[in-house]
Amino acid sequence: MTRQKSSTKGDLTWWQLSLTGIGCTIGTGYFLGSSIGISLTGPSIVFSFILAALGTYIVFHFLAKMSADDPQEGSFCYYANKAFGKWAGFSCGWNYWSSSILIMGSQLIALSILTQLWFPNIPLWVFAAIYSILAILVVLLGTKGFDKVEDILAVIKTAAIIIFIIMAFGALFGWFTGTNVKQPGIPNSLKQLFTGGWQGFWSSLIYAFYAFGGIEVIGLMTIRLKKKEDAPKSGKLMLLLLALIYIVSIGLSVTLVSVEAFDPNESPFITALADYHLSYFKHGFNAAIIIAGFSAMTATLFGVMTLLVTLAKDGDAPQLFAKKINKFKNLPLPSLALATVGLLASIIIALLLPEKIYEYITTAAGILLLYNWACIIASSLKLQKQRNRLHSFVGLFGVLLLGITVIGTLAEKSIRPGFYISILLLIIIGIVTIYRNKKS
């Protein structure tokens, strides 16, 4: 694949890209999925997030370097193609598309679970259908309308986390009264720290990494920067803010209540303050979480639609999906229609398998995401002509950490089906890739 370095004039400043990245990243994977991680490993979930932040930074470092040197619309798909050939770009693109569809499904189910706090008798699939329609309407606003909505929602959800942190400190210092409040405090033994043992800690890593899912948006949206060389600066700010608020808020949560209190179907932040006389907080924060999840889901839908257009332009998808309709703000409606099919599948799954489906889909989505992150590192190592031993070591360490995280999902029976789902999708993509190569 040969393509000229992009000269497209962008419309985003570096801090706007950081804000958009935060908006695309903070979602139900953090607000709800982290409860699963806490139930698996206990207070040591803080270390899971530290490791995930380190691994995410390594991926970002390699992606940002490629994006700054050679900004391209296809981002990591283009780099995989350039490094390893057409098959790599094709499989990388469709793997990311598949992971994004699963992420949308995960977010959709999570939003429905959270909304049942107010309407417990209404089935999950009804809420899933409502949120799907709303997300499609936001995307139909076009790029500028989407950016404005996402910026507003990003501010709301970041503010919600900051409010929780302030209130959690207030609870620790006795500013609020509560009923039967028993703060476990900071663990003073390995058993208290790793309540699920090393196996539980290993399995929890996938949920910490999943909370950082969205960093790849820096690569996909670099093309829209006014100054393409600002991509590394945007990503560093984004990651620093995310890591700080994630680690502090999660640490406060496991300090305020015991591990047994956390429920995978309830946000750990609501659980952490449940015993205090803050009735308004539970409902207000639940609303903020729903806004956050909806924001992330809509951003994923927009990203899936955009990615499919790029795949079609590169010949990795039917040309139909590159077609844009002028009457609808020049949006690629065929690509949006295929993404909508993914949303419909999530609604049907919510109807048929409402019990454990959130854990399964979230696990599978996280694993597929890490496959793509490993591909990003491998592409960079192959393309970078001048690299020292430290550069190579950091890259190999990043791939090893991602691999350990993926294998960790096999250690816990309750989330193991998610691993099998990811393998099934990889096999399907692999078969299609082999067939396509033979045909061409």
From TrEMBL:
Instruction: Name where it's found.
Output: Cell membrane
Question: Key word Transferase present in the record?
Answer: no
PROSITE patterns listed in its UniProt record: PROKAR_LIPOPROTEIN
Q: Which GO terms describe its biological process?
A: amino acid transport; transmembrane transport
| Start and end residues of each Amino acid permease/ SLC12A domain | 19-392
Q: Name one GO cellular component term.
A: plasma membrane
Q: Give the transmembrane region(s).
A: 12-33, 45-64, 96-118, 124-142, 154-176, 205-225, 237-259, 287-312, 333-354, 360-381, 393-411, 417-435
Transmembrane found in the keyword field? yes
What keywords tag this UniProt record? Amino-acid transport, Membrane, Transmembrane, Transmembrane helix, Transport
Using the record, list the residue span of the signal peptide; answer none if the entry has no such feature: none
Q: What is its main location?
A: membrane
Mode of membrane association: Multi-pass membrane protein
Q: In its UniProt entry, what is this protein called?
A: Amino acid permease
Provenance organism:
Gracilibacillus dipsosauri
